Amino acid sequence: MNIDDFINNFAEQFDETEKSEFLQETTFRDLDEWDSMIALSIIGMVDEEYDIELTGDEIRAANTISDLFKIVSNKK
Amino acid sequence: MKTLLKGIEISHIASSLPSKVLKFDDLKDLFGDKEVDKVMKTTGINSVHIAADDTTSSDLCFYAAKKILDSLDTTDDIDGLIFVSQTRDHVLPQSSHILQAKLGLSQDTYCLDMPLGCSGYIYGLMQASLLISTGACNKVLVLAGDTTSKLVNEQDRASRLVFGDAGSATLLQKGNDGMYFDLRADGSGKDSLIVPSGGFRNPSNSKTSITKPAEEGCSRSQDDLFMDGMSVFNFAITKVPKLLKETLLELNWTLESLDAMVLHQANKFMVDYLRRKMKLPLEMVPIEVKNYGNTGPASIPLAITSKYSIDKPKLNNVLLAGFGVGLSWGACNCNLQNTIIFEPEIFNKL
């Protein structure tokens, strides 16, 4: 698993946020566009792209995109 | 639980909707323009039908059932009535008994309430098929409906912008079809979709009815419906495709031999996600949520009546699947080729 691909896949779930805002250390919950609908898209993306089940609790426990990447890669 | 039941057919399907419509545009003052637009875009739901204070699920189902019964020469041979709903008329007696009398069905009728939600239609069909295939019953009505709007707090954005009310009626009788059922349960997920108070575990009192802020944009009380959207989505995308694939395998069906797959209409995002995961084309998997929302146990028959009542394609090999509260999920096949499918009716006061 590659962090850059993960960030790209993560960013693709957003419509309005500039790509440059998505970095490893980005606190995704602070993004204006972040909401529960985007969270569902992230769960779907992780399922489709990585065949990993990402739970709501795991998303709630993570702060940065890097945190999420670690959770997913540890399950791989 | 898996079983193949033989000697059945689905003869009629009807549905009904309460006349009052809640347009989500009208909730923008309460929840904000941007939020409501975003949810509508993702869920594909623009409005829902809402039952009046004095209209219950059994009223909506009665109305749909009447549509079928009025088209029959006789109703004397109907000897089973299954009512699938989480919004019954009373704690007791069962609503199925009330419906038996109201519909004028014989006193030889076997009546059963099944308090299930989004998987309930499949459970109801299984129960009816079981009664027919064993020879216990000749004809069984499955009445599935909910007035979920009455369980949702007005300030709960997450649920209010999803759930609508509807009723349905499906008549099963002796026939030449076989129906394969696969029903599954995981009660450890009970908290993902729950009305925490109001039963006997946590009876309602003055404290449980107080509305309190919950997640962002949502407030509710312990007497209201709570849905953990992320958990339910996760549950559906991991369990349902597996169930569908295993059901196809058991039936010895390929994706090419399938005529349609009608899923519980949770919302557009969910149904479309499952469709893509099953690699099925758009036209084979109806998404009928725009004007109805998620109508719980009525969503599958409502989708069938909404999509196929006028323009009916070949429907010999149809796969159905429901999933939700429990948690529970189930799938079955059915043959709707000769089924009389009525258009959804707007409920007029009884």
From TrEMBL, chain A:
The lineage of its organism: Bacteria, Pseudomonadati, Bacteroidota, Flavobacteriia, Flavobacteriales. This is Acyl carrier protein. Signal peptide: none annotated. Residues 1-76 form the Carrier domain. Transmembrane segments: none annotated. It comes from the Bacteria. SUPFAM superfamilies: ACP-like.
From TrEMBL, chain B:
Residues 251-332 form the Beta-ketoacyl-[acyl-carrier-protein] synthase III C-terminal domain. Pathway: Lipid metabolism. It comes from the Bacteria. The keyword Transferase applies. It holds the Pfam family ACP_syn_III. One of its GO terms (molecular function) is 3-oxoacyl-[acyl-carrier-protein] synthase activity. The keyword Transferase applies. GO terms for biological process: fatty acid biosynthetic process. Residues 112-187 form the Beta-ketoacyl-[acyl-carrier-protein] synthase III N-terminal domain. Keywords: Fatty acid biosynthesis, Fatty acid metabolism, Lipid biosynthesis, Lipid metabolism, Transferase. InterPro entries: ACP_syn_III_C, ACP_syn_III_N, Thiolase-like. Gene3D superfamilies: 3.40.47.10. Belongs to the thiolase-like superfamily. FabH family. This is Uncharacterized protein.
